[in-house]
Amino acid sequence: MKSVSAKMQGKDFIRNYFSFIGLILVVIVFHVLTEGNLISSRNMMNIFNNFFSIGLGAIGVMFLMSLGELDLSVGAIMGFASAMGAFSAQVHVALIIPVCLLTGLAIGALNGVMISRLKVESFIGTLAMSFIARGLTTYFLNGTVGIPLTQRMFDQSYVKIAVFLVVAIVFYLLFEYRAYGKQCRAIGASAEAARQSGVNVERVRFLAFAISGLLCGLAGFFSLVRTCTASSSTGEAFEFEVLLAVLFGGMPLSGGWSVKFRAAIVGSIAMAVMQNGMSLMGIDGLTQQIVEGVILIIVVVISFDRRNTVVIK
């Protein structure tokens, strides 16, 4: 009995500290493989640029996964928001930021209506929304649309750092210390029990999808100002990068009370380091996707808790 108990405690320890162990291993491995070029003053900003967008998406997805839901449309939302922002620049450049944010918020709200009101399963509903948003982006852009190069002033490191700190602090407080964050985790643990306790389950789900969409719109804006061009490929595979990041950070697939805010941050850092390390090694984008897919499978196998098996809706 003691050996069984010790084994279970060992597994719990791995699950609890998997994100930090994984991050340390990723940094060490790629620091060695890149011959010390990973952790250098020149490269740290490249890592942050990768982390910035993934981190924004991961914070939004964290709310959904705490509910036991999933959003496969975050990349499409990011791309469509970027496209709408580029079109709005033709009217006035001051419209870019609000249009990107409102576009992301609107699509997130539509997802929320589908899942919370129409009772569409999140996996199917957000996948369908991904196809719709991608199709609209391709239809409206018909190639690429540019914005004035002056908008690159928003791509400065101090701007991104300030924006991310504000976003992280606001949503950390909302998730960890406000009633809404507790309601998200309560629903993920047991939606029926939360409903009987007086929680408006549909409203909480709707707001979670709206938050995710809003942050994807913000990521779309910064993607746009970085390249000053919106294209139909913007945000491709972003949803899987975000999913891998939160899972690598120790986010449980089943949601509930074990979801921690740190999973979004630590996992996003690990993902950014991994992507940057592979780029420094000269690994092409297609091969990187293969590696990320394999790692996703490994992470799920290691971190999946079969004692609390719940299939994401």
Outline of the structure:
The protein has 313 residues and is mostly helical.
Tags for this model:
mainly alpha, disordered C terminus, two-stranded antiparallel sheet, 12 helices, 313 residues, 73% helix
Could you walk me through the main structural features you see in this protein, from its secondary elements to its overall organization?
With 313 residues, the protein is mostly helical. It contains 12 helices and 2 strands. It has helices at 2-33, 41-66, 74-88, 96-116, 122-141, 157-176, 179-189, 191-196, 201-227, 238-248, 262-280, 285-303; strands spanning 144-146, 229-231. It has a two-stranded antiparallel ribbon with strand order 1-2. The longest helix has 32 residues, at 2-33. It is globular. The relative contact order is 0.19. Residues 306-311 have low confidence and may be disordered.
Q: Strand sequence of the main sheet, in spatial order?
A: 1-2
Mean pLDDT: 87
Order of helices and strands: HHHHHEHHHHEHHH
Largest sheet: 2 strands, antiparallel
How is the topology of this model organized?
Elements: H1 2-33, H2 41-66, H3 74-88, H4 96-116, H5 122-141, E1 144-146, H6 157-176, H7 179-189, H8 191-196, H9 201-227, E2 229-231, H10 238-248, H11 262-280, H12 285-303
Antiparallel strand pairs: 1-2
